[in-house]
Design brief:
Bound molecules: flavin-adenine dinucleotide, NADP nicotinamide-adenine-dinucleotide phosphate
Shape: globular
Structural class: alpha+beta
Radius of gyration: 24 Å
Number of strands: 18
Distance between the termini: 37 Å
Largest sheet: 6 strands, antiparallel
Helix content: 25-40%
Number of helices: 15
Strand order of the largest sheet: 9-6-13-4-5-10
Length: 416
Amino acid sequence: MQEIEASGGDVCRGRFFVYYNGEMSETTAATPVAPVAAHAKYTRNQPYLAKVVTNDRLTGPESEKETIHVEIELEEGMTYTPGDAVGIIPTNREAQVQSVLAALGFNGTEVVQDHYKNEISLLEALTAHLGIGKLARGSVNQYAKLCGENVPDGLAALLGAENKALAEEYVWGREFIDLLKEFPGVITEPQQLFVVLQRLQPRMYSIASSLAAHPGQVHTTVRVIRYTAHGLDRQGVASGHLGERAPVGATLPIYLHENKNFRLPEDTDAPVIMIGPGTGIAPFRAFLEHREALGHKGDNWLFFGEQRSVSDYLYKDQFLKMQADGLLTNLHTAFSRDQHKKIYVQDRMTENAAELFAWLERGAYFYVCGDASRMAKDVETALLDVIANGTGSTPEHAVAYLAEMKKAKRYQRDVY
Ligand SMILES: Cc1cc2nc3c(=O)[nH]c(=O)nc-3n(C[C@H](O)[C@H](O)[C@H](O)COP(=O)(O)OP(=O)(O)OC[C@H]3O[C@@H](n4cnc5c(N)ncnc54)[C@H](O)[C@@H]3O)c2cc1C
Ligand SMILES: NC(=O)c1ccc[n+]([C@@H]2O[C@H](COP(=O)([O-])OP(=O)(O)OC[C@H]3O[C@@H](n4cnc5c(N)ncnc54)[C@H](OP(=O)(O)O)[C@@H]3O)[C@@H](O)[C@H]2O)c1
């Protein structure tokens, strides 16, 4: 059993953890920590070691995706508001750590200094402090610098501003182990890894629950990233940790992250429209549970999209019950791969344009969560069309209408 600082964070404020057989548990802090209010005292540098109480797969066996629902127990006094996120501090998986050690010719007992100059073993460093997952371009550059005058041709071809595109292509789908195998013998001292590799970062997950419905718990909806690239099976660091190494009873270092820009309306009678395809559904489950638990009277309209209704309808029973109970005034789904031609949430918006515009006119708040790269933009385009058609005016007027909504905090997005 060895001692590590799980967050890779501030030692003075540090909480210390022991790492044993892939499990973390808390031990005595080296420096006394001043008492702070329980809800505020846990941060990325000083996380709370929380227990996993549920870890269920939401997607069916036929699904192309593995999306899970994880429930985590909070310490008494830790609070959040729907719209907030939870930060999870992952560890690298053991097999990956071992393959890096083997490629380097080290055994893990070597002593290195962490980011705060504390002495730890190389095994601890590779498990909990260094990002050995997806390869960063910066790591390739630092690795090349260690070669001095003898940069191999293949590596030299990835350096410099003129080769940026090539380097981007190289790192896509690759991890540190790929670099080690392709250009071996560069790392001669374990400490050099702290120069080459980035720090292992926490990952954020939108909170999928309301404390009013689940006192003392925080829920998340996580897509476990798995893919095969360059001949190896790979997985996301944090989603892989949650998907494979966080069974019921396991502990996870977490902290709560406030997001004041994604909030239910203060007016509990105001209508809300929620666009949440994929894991973007998470905060809307929280919104709906909150309004249900507190008896808020405002109308609720949910648009959910995923690939197939049979396997990917996340929280189906809960949403259908909310609809039957009258909490969900409208529920529209868009299962993109249930038919030949793809149908997306914005298509459902367009089909229901007149009603959608009527909701906006009576002060509805419009929320979007999920994919930033395409979905959020396409939904905004569809929304502008709904407004332009509804007002019977120009696209410029629709843009101004949406700008007014934004100013009034009636258009909020949480996209990633
Ligand atoms: C505010 C916020 C809220 C979020 N909420 C959620 C949420 O509710 N649910 C959720 O699941 N996620 C959410 N995310 C995303 C989440 O934080 C992580 O980014 C996500 O889980 C991936 O982290 P990871 O450690 O598993 O993967 P990483 O180890 O970071 O690896 C992901 C990387 O792998 C590479 N990759 C992925 N697929 C492939 C492929 N097929 N081929 C090649 N390379 C590939 C890409 O470079 C990708 O960036 C949120 C993010 C933010 C910022
Ligand atoms: N950083 C990361 O590594 C990471 C990890 C997890 C999730 N994410 C991101 O989290 C978001 C959610 O991922 P997810 O897998 O849960 O869901 P998703 O990829 O957003 O897919 C959900 C649904 O949206 C559809 N869709 C695809 N393009 C769309 C568009 N332009 N407009 C509207 N709908 C569209 C998909 O259809 P089709 O698939 O049939 O086209 C699917 O039916 C995405 O941004 C994803 O990239 C990122």
